[in-house]
Amino acid sequence: MNDIDSLKEAIERSPDNIPLRIMLAGKYLHFGRLEEAETEFQTVLNYDSNHVKAKEGLAEIYFRRGRYSGVIVIVEELMKRDMASERMMVICAKSFVREKSIEEAQEVYEKILDENPDFEDKELDENLRMPSFDVDDDEDFDEEDPFGFGFVNGPDDKDFILEKPDISFKDVGGMEKLKEEIDLKIIKPLENADLYAAYGKKIGGGILLYGPPGCGKTYLAKATAGEIKANFISVGISDILDMWIGRSEKNMGYIFEVARRNTPCVLFFDEVDALGASRSDMKNSSGRHVINQFLSELDGIEGNNEGILVMGATNAPWHLDPAFRRPGRFDRIIFVPPPDNTSKEKILEIIMQEKPKEKIDYQKVVEHTKFYSGADLKAMIDIAIEDKLKIAFKTGIPEPINTDDLIKAAKRHHASTREWFNTAKNYALFANESGIYDEILKYIK
Fold it and tell me: In the chain, which residues fall in CATH 1.10.8.60?
């Protein structure tokens, strides 16, 4: 305690003395005074945002408090800079285990074992060590079908479905600022192609939509295609990834070729972080090959991408390889936040259009939907409908939904965006050197 008092006295005379603050924070941490330790480490980061000891201290505090997403963000950033100690990697792996992210935990665990083959930890060993298997000679082993999938030459070629969306921006509730931005960056260039050609600018490019789940990223991409009367191709992970070596890269090339033959075309990649994960975190060379092929196609090396708009959606932009954000690829990044109150009213009106209802005070309902995404609003209405169905089963008469029914349902449904913002805030505070997450901080404030 005398040491703490002496350090506090010294800091009062020299408040910007970082070594003194680190010592004081360490003392607080040693005595379990976590809140005071966190304040000191945060103060150090205000002076020096890359201070390793301060980040390690915060990670330790977050781990003790069970704020595992904060631990993961900090340690991942230290690992990218090759500055993560074994202790940091251990608490990161344990945080992944406790968050039920076993694959990510396994990757960190393997890095620990690479550097220290004798490493042992009961929690990590029990959850992550792979059991060994004895192979009895060649019993049940089929050379033609070694994995037991029932085919030898690989699966049939995938058919990617071209569609012409029948929705446009008028069907998207709210999101006025986002629609305005997309209009400026996408629609206007297509409508004024000759003008852009005069300046030597190409039509097309890449846009990344990111934000919490259920806020309409996929719907917005489809509405964009409908607005410009373009073809639309939606691509999921299963459309690209293949168990056979080389097939995933071919699938990626094929889908871009289909888009090139059908311009103007919006090529939409959902959960794009799964196809474009950071290569520095990968041990699997086949995953790297898919990412390299993706980057090559975006650059138009294999063909002309004029008239192709590539849109990607992700809930976790921090897992996307930085190479995807270079000019000419996903160089325009748009944050899709939960809808504001005006947008929520419009979304509710659209969802309720064909449903039996009394006159509903949407403004009053919205007051009970703090942090709700569009998907949350739909879930709330589903709850209200289920309650009405229970009554209708008894009476045989469908009763209309009213304002009180929706408010009652809103009180039972919890917003799904809170958890996302808890994680995103950590990235915005501790891994935001390029300023990509500034919009998150503005939204939170």
Answer: 341-412
pTM over 0.85: no
* pLDDT tens, position by position, 368-396: 998 899 899 999 999 999 999 988 888 88
State the SS3 of the chain.
CHHHHHHHHHHHHCCCCHHHHHHHHHHHHHCCCHHHHHHHHHHHHHHCCCCHHHHHHHHHHHHHHCCHHHHHHHHHHHHHCCCCCHHHHHHHHHHHHHCCCHHHHHHHHHHHHHHCCCCCCHHHHHHHCCCCCCCCCCCCCCCCCCCCCCCCCCCCCCCCCCECCCCCHHHCCCCHHHHHHHHHHHHHHHHCHHHHHHCCCCCCEEEEEECCCCCCHHHHHHHHHHHCCCEEEEECHHHHCCCCCCHHHHHHHHHHHHHHHCCCEEEEECCHHHHCECHHHCCCHHHHHHHHHHHHHHHCCCCCCCCEEEEEEECCHHHECHHHHCCCCCCEEEECCCCCHHHHHHHHHHHHCCCCECCCCHHHHHCCCCCCCHHHHHHHHHHHHHHHHHHHHHHCCCCCECHHHHHHHHHHCCCCCHHHHHHHHHHHHHCCCCCCCHHHHHHHC
Q: CATH 3.40.50.300 occupies which residues in the chain?
A: 169-335
